[in-house]
What does this fold into?
Amino acid sequence: MKKNINTECLHAGYSPKNGEPRVVPIYQSTTFKYESSEDMAKCFDLDSNGYFYTRLQNPTNDAVAAKIAALEGGVAAVLTSSGQAASFYSVFNIASAGDHVVCSSAIYGGTFNLFSVTMKKLGIDFTFISPTASEAELNAAFRDNTRAVFAETLSNPSLDVLDIELFANAAHAHGVPLIVDNTFPTPVNCRPFEFGADIVIHSTTKYMDGHATSVGGVIVDSGNFDWTQNDKFPGLTTPDDSYHGIIYTEKFGKGAYITKAVVQLMRDLGSIPSPHNAFLLNLGLETLPLRVERHCQNALAVAEFLKTNKNVSWINYPSLADSKYYDLVQKYMPDGTSGVISFGVKGGRKAAIKFMDSLGLASICTHVADCRTCCLHPASTTHRQLTDEQLKECGVSDDLIRLSVGIEYIDDIIADIAQALEKAAQA
Ligand code: PLP
It folds into this structure.
């Protein structure tokens, strides 16, 4: 029987038997011992489920991946060493030189760079479209060689909310899957597979870990996309010469996409997390629903406070009733969006910097989703090399503060922000 996500966060992926450790153990071992060469050969031939080398599979990593697959409602998952690796593998698993991907322009800057510069060098072309593209605009972006659509369910840092069904329908009409990055809402607030997305990825570095200890990522497959419906995915539907001529869709059915990512991409590129990091991620996952709920409650209270503060020029938080995304929020993430807010400090760059420097409780970090409140002034840090014109193009005004509201006591968070805004007004 399917259990509530609060229960799954604690129990999915690992069921200890009589006398076994209650908590997922850390299998900090690169390798695994066998009684005979034949036993090990079966593992190499993928005829047995045994572990043989941690670059491909490890019991700690697998238990945590299975938990995240359950949270998203998918059939299989693989952990990666970072969110960046998850984004890369999710696309590279089904696209190669000469292929094309349709991608929302509202994505994390690191992903944008990965796609538009690094993967372009590998011969994969991306067309970037608005996250609010109409059906006609979406359809116009496809080409014969398009192999996937990629978008963020709630984008970093612009906080655009994706119309998942619209994007999924367009992708399916062109015979390709929709891959979504669900890092910000997490499966606690949004389960994209229920709306037609086919593959979900996360930077687990963010809310899933939640304590700023471990960089990591994950790819989850819904198992719903039929890779054999056309000839666009030969890597999955024709023999893999590097794996004894295996045809992934024939041998692994709904597990084809993740199996290929593990035995081919992990084998060759090797971006696995350490079992110790997977263990820490698992501790974070255990309390994910509690933290996400508190992050969202606190963020809404901070957003309401900022809305009425005379030293704030604008505010962007999609859960506010007057947000342009309010209807999409009600459909896709009605219980909350995330703890991340962006807003403008009156007085521009100088006042924004004074605000940042006056904070006491909130720390200045290039991070979001930590349980501790943190914030960033992108114009003077992550985006400081850009001209005013370029800042405008990527939607980063010089007064913009990105605030990741933590789970501290709300009055303390608001008091800190209030005193810093007072000081900023005198800058
Ligand atoms: N996806 C999103 C939405 C992110 O915010 C980030 C990082 O900030 C990434 C992916 C990349 O993840 P990582 O830093 O774990 O490589």
Observations:
- The chain has a mean pLDDT of 95.
